[in-house]
Structure formats: C-alpha cells, structure tokens
Amino acid sequence: MWRVPILLFIVQFPAQLWAADNAADAVQFETHVRPILKANCWHCHGEAEEVKGSLDARLVRTLLQGGDSGPAITRGDHVGSLLYHRVVAGDMPPGEKKLTAAEIEVLARWIDQGANTDRVEPASLPTGPVIGDDERSHWSFQPVRRPVVPEVRHPALVRSPIDAFLLAGLEVKGLSFGAEADRPTLIRRLYFDLTGLPPSPSAVEQFVHDRAPDAYERLVDQLLGSPAYGEHWGRHWLDVVGYADSNGYSELDSPRKWAFRYRDYVIRSLNGDKPWNDFLVEQLAGDELLPQPLENLTAAQADQLIATGMLRMGPDGTSDGAVDQNLARNEVIANTIKIVSTSVLGLTVACAQCHDHRYDPISQADYYGLRAIFEPAFDWKNWRSPDARLVSLWTDETRKQAAAAEADLQEIDRQRHAELDQIVNQTFERELAKLPTEMQSAARLAHDTAADKRSNAQLELIKQHPFLNVDRSTVYLYLPDRLTEFNKRWDDCAETAAKKKPADDFVQCLTEIPGQIPATKLFARGDFNSPKQDIAPGELTVLNAQDFSIASDDPQLATSGRRLAYARHLTDGRHPLVARVLVNRFWLNHFGRGLVTTPADFGALGQPPSHPELLDWLADDFMAGGWKLKRLHRMIVTSTAYRQSSEHRAELDAVDPENRLLGRMPARRLQAEMLRDALLATSGRLSAKMFGPPVPITPDDVGQVVVGADTRDSSGRPTGKVVDLGEDEFRRSIYVQVQRSKPLGLLETFDAPTMSPNCEQRASSTNAPQSLMLMNNAFVLQQADEMAERIEREVGADLSAQFQRAWQMAYCRAPSASQLQAGLEFLGAQAAIIAANPAADPPAEPSTPSQVALSNLCQALVMSNGFLYVD
C-alpha cells in the first residue's frame, strides 16, 4: 500500500532535482541498472528468439534507439522516458512481479545522470542470452586463488591462518578476539560440534584437570576418531542431499526399504575420512567406476554403487498408480538437478528450467545441458520404477545358496501337498463308505467331475452330502486335531529350510542401461510436451573457462560416461565453485553461519562472503590438503577464533552487532536430532548401535508421530498391540525413519527439515510449541525420569550430590554455591508439595516425593536454555 504515493512522488519529481541531489552518487549501467533489466526485461526484450516490440533492452544504445514505440529512454530526462513510464504504470514487466520503488528510483537517477556506461558497448549482440565479462566477473565464477595470509598487529593471537584472516578484519575496526572460553564450555562445544552429543561428567572432569599443553588437541583427535563423529556430520550432508526413507511426491509416500544403505555409506565415509573429491565422484557416478554387469561386487565396489543413492534421494511418485507418469518422471529429474546444483555448485540452477535465469548467467540451454548429463540414467520415455532400479548385492555363491534353499522349500511344499492329498483322499473314502453301496458310484462320479461340468443331479447330491467337496482347504473340518499337528510339523520344516535362504540384499542406486542413450530436448517453457532442439551434455557456460566438454558416449565405458566425466571435472581442483561451496558449508556447521550466508546461492542474489580471502584460502587449502575434512576440522576448532567465549562485549556489539567479523563465538541452539540424542545420552539410555534398517515410527493415540512399530489395522485404527523395539527405541536420531509425510513429532517441533526435495540450510526458530513439547511430551518426561534414576544410582540419596550431578549432566559444569543453595531449596519445596498432594492416580511403580522432585528438577534443567544452547 505504501508504494503508490512514493511512485506518484517519483513521477512528479523534476529530473533536474534528481541530478542535483544525487550528483555524488553516480549510477552506472553495468553495475546498477543492468541487473534490474536482466531480471525483469531481457527475457522478452533481447534473450528470446522473438524480440517483443523490436526493443532490445540489453544495450544502452538500443534503448536509446528504441523499438516500435520509439526511444525507450531519453538521456537526462526520466520523466520523458517511455521505459520509466511503463514500469511506473505497472505495464512492464507483465505479470504479477513488478519493479520495487527502489529499483525505479535507480532507473530514474541513471537516466537523469545521462544513462552512462562503464565501458564501450559491443556493436551488436546475438539473439538469446549472452555471457560477457560482466557476468563472468562475479566473485564466485572466478578461479580459486590462494591469497597471502595477512599480517596482524597481534600475532600472538594467531594459532592458524584462519585467525590471521579474521583478526585482520577485526583490527581494521579497532577490535580483537574475545577471551578464551573456559574449559567446561570448550569441551561441551567440541563434543556437540564434532559428535552431536554431550560429554559425560567424567569426561568433563578429566579435561578440566588435564593441564598438559596438548590436552585440547588430544581431545579434538579423540572426538574426530569417535564413531559418533560420522553419525553427526553425516546428518549435515544428508540434509543437503535430501535423505528420506520414503518416496514422497503424493499422499501415498511409499517406503524406500533400502535407502538406509546410502545413509550408512555416508557415515562410514566420514568416519573413514574419505577424501571429498572421491566422495563426490562416487555419489555422482559410482556405477560408472564399476565393470558391467554389476555382479559379484567387492565391499569397496558395493560402496561405490551405494554412493549413487544420492541421486535417488529426490521425491519419486512414479510407482504411485494415480499420478501423471510423464509429469512425475520429469519432476524426479528436476529435483535431482536441484539437489546436485544446490549441494555441489551452490547455484539456483533450477530457475533456468523454464526460461533463462533472470539474475544469474545461466541459460535455459545450460540447464538442459546439465540434464543431458543425467538423462541416460533417467530416461523418462523408458522409465524404470524405483523397485526396477534396485540392484542385488548377491554374489554367485549367494545365489547358489538361495537356489538350493528355494529348491528345498519347493520339495517341502511338494511333499506337504502330497501328504495332504493323501489325507483328503482318506477322508473322502472314509466318508464315502458311510453312504449306501448303491449311491457310492454316483457320489464318486460327482466328486471327480469338475465343478463347472456337474449336472443338476450331481449338484443336488453334493448339497445333500457336502463331504463330496472335501479338498485341501476344507479337510481340517473333518480332522481338526490331525491337521493342527500336520500344519505345525510342515511349518516348522519350512521355517528351518527358509532360514538357510540368504536375506535379500539390495541397493537403491542410479545406473544406466548400457547402449541406451536418449536424446535430451530443450523444453519450451519447461513443458515436456513442447520439445525443441537437441541439447548436448555440458558444464554451465559461465563456468566453462577451460573449454571442457563431455562426450555424448564414452567409448571406453559400457555406460555413457557423462556423469563420470562431469564428476571428475567438478573435483579436478580447478572448478571455481565446488571447494568454495563445500568449505562454506563446513564453516556454517561450526559457526552457525557461513562466510557466505546463502550456502545454496553463490549467484547474483546470494550474499557476498564476509571474508572472501579467507574463503578462497580455505578452499585452496582444502584441495591442497587432499580434500580431507578431518584436517579442516582440526584447523578450525583449534583456532583462537573458535576457542573464544560467546560473551557479548559492548565495543564489539557497537561496531559489529551481527558478529559477522567473529569477534566472539556465536551461541547456537541444538538442532532437533542433537536435542533428542542429548536427552537420551543424559538419561543414560542412548544406544551405541550403528547402521542398518531405520527405526520405525508410528502415530500415537493422539496422532503425534513417535518412535514405535506401526500396529494399526488396514483402516488405520489402533489395535492396542505394542511391539517392544528393545534398544532400537533409544538409537540416535539419524537412524530413525525419515518419512516425508510423517516427521517425528519432537524433531519437527525443533525445526527438523522437510525434504522437498532437500534442505539447503536449516532454520532455528523459537516458539511456544517447543516449550509445550518439553513440558508435556511423553519421551521428554520419560528421559527426565530415567535421568533422575541414573543420578540416584550413581550418587545415592544425598540431595546435594544429586543436584550437583544433575547440573553437571545438563550443563557440563559444576553449580556455583548460590545455584546449589537454590537447587536444594527447590528439591525440598518440591518434595513437600508432592508429599502434601499425593497423586489421585499413582503410577504402577510408586516413587517417593524426593524421587519425583528430582525428576522434576531434571525436566526443568533439560528445558532450559543452558541445555538447549551451546555457548
């Protein structure tokens, strides 16, 4: 509503005043105006095959020349410029999206200042998108170059080059790093950051009292060597690739039984510190590294195949019967391209699916060039359903065992039916003998005659004597005891034989059918019903400074080789985006915010890096160091910057209130999975079991999704049956089933992402349902009770010892004297209230008032910001 009077004011504002008031603020075409016109005008006026109104808006010269309606601009006179009037009136651009008041102001100022350019324009431009120096000059499209580590005024604060870059920025503002955090804070920060779990009180005590000079570094190495490291950092990558145990797309949201193998591959790879160039190549083209056919694979080869599960993570409704198959198939491909581009390239490539990208130099042809890389595996006209894409990991020996077991089962089935047929015949003959002799011949004939060939007389005879229809399915009516024993004996026999059959062992992966390479068409307006010219596979034009090309069919491989060529190109160390995007994500997960705060958009609309030299130094060093993530972790977490206190300082907040310069360590809230895992660890119930099929989820009695086996009937009604999951109920959250349509209630409340198709960056909200969840959720209450029981087991009934242990478990530090005193008063007051007000419906296992008070204390502690946040 506020735009109307502002626009009227702009229209009436004299051009001379614009020029006078803004003479000091020169507006240039390339820097200020070109992006506005590209985003809003060029798709009709310059980049399309048909230039509307004969007006090419890509050059100042052609704007001055104009089109069918005359000149678009008049130098020095925005009021007399047709372009200005059309955008103010809202006639241009067409559609709902209009220029903002600020953009219109830029146009007016530029015109009034003479419609200047920074450089001489080309004599002409070809029809369609043109990528020139202006587009290629964007910071993220430049080659990664290792900058010189800056000198600082306080070199004693520099533990690593990271510190030098950050400290140099602080010193320019007259600032420095904050004080180092105390040891309890550091160990809690490190544990959560590297493993996603809290340290035990004994681990905290040991570290606090370890005064060896390398105590901190040894702790870092210990945590990087923990299996929990891969589970925690694996979760970060699974976000980016959109991991889920269900297909999504429609309400059916069918399960992905074998997706967990990819999750396990990620965890194993990170724990093993697999170089990220290999990690990416395997995920993009692991199948193309293997000999065909994909049989008798070694464990290492199976991992390379499993890795391609990354490309099968997008929603896939093609196995759902009630969907438009062509639409669903093409959406699978589009989602896969989005996952790859946002996770590896850090660009919004998907915006070019229907038209040239309005902000970044990515043409529609570029988009379909990327699609052509993946289309041999996603042949939408010869589609393979999710189940048809599964590849068995059985070896020849396994298949031989399975065949032998299957033969045994068939033989058991044959013998079972033969014996059952004998019983049926014996039963028939016994019953037949009860009939008069003169009827037996006709009765036998009726029994032996096929049901659809029986005469009316035979049908009447069978109606009078139903035993004449005795068969395998009805003989139990005559011999119930004998059939019970018969069935048990043969069932036991079949069960014993079935145990000899190897379990199914499939991989959800992406593969190509050798020799089957479809043509990739550019779709007009992104509509697969409107195919246009063929498009060859290729890199985005703006990134292709090396004249890189991809063969349509690699003669050295049984497959097309397109994905393998592209993956090796991305990881050859010369690509301008890949390493930058990766190290920025790693930085984000250490500091809560990336050096580039838009981790999936390094393009024109993304934010520039706060420390561009540091970003490039990290990217170059990461590649030079063998693409090893644990090496980068060590460098980051041992830096002075990382070891700072999170305490605010007035002088820092005055200059850098958002802490972009990192003059203190940001405080961060636990992510959803970290919260659940921390509750389990604190209560002592956390299972260390790794890998395997996901822990099931189910709606509870009130519809909230919880961990548990789904025992509802076919109509979705509860049966009351409870299945004991054993330790699986208490496994880490990364192993809990991820069903797109049914997120786990506790995780959803604390911002666990919905994979549609992936999560580019997690949100961290604060809202009332989170407090209500911690107050009332059965899981949270159970863990508080378990925590209280654990404390009582470990320290006995002494209230002071109980409170101190509870405080240590929750916050990883000892309470102060005043906190201890307040805690003892709380426990005493709670016990008195509970004793005076006994429960109307006492629990099956009665608790004393002091035990209930301790449980209440534990719940209060895990609900607090001290538990939910890491300083």
Automatic annotation (TrEMBL):
Residue ranges of domain Cytochrome C Planctomycete-type in the record: 41-95
Pfam families from the UniProt entry: PSCyt1, PSCyt2, PSD1
Extent of the signal sequence: 1-19
Keyword Signal: yes
UniProt domain DUF1549: residue ranges: 161-376
Keyword Signal: yes
Record domain DUF1553: where: 562-826
GO molecular function ontology, one term from the record: electron transfer activity
Keywords tagged on the record: Signal
InterPro entries: Cyt_c-like_dom_sf, Cyt_c_Planctomycete-type, DUF1549, DUF1553
Superkingdom: Bacteria
Protein name: Planctomycete cytochrome C
Lineage: Bacteria, Pseudomonadati, Planctomycetota, Planctomycetia, Pirellulales
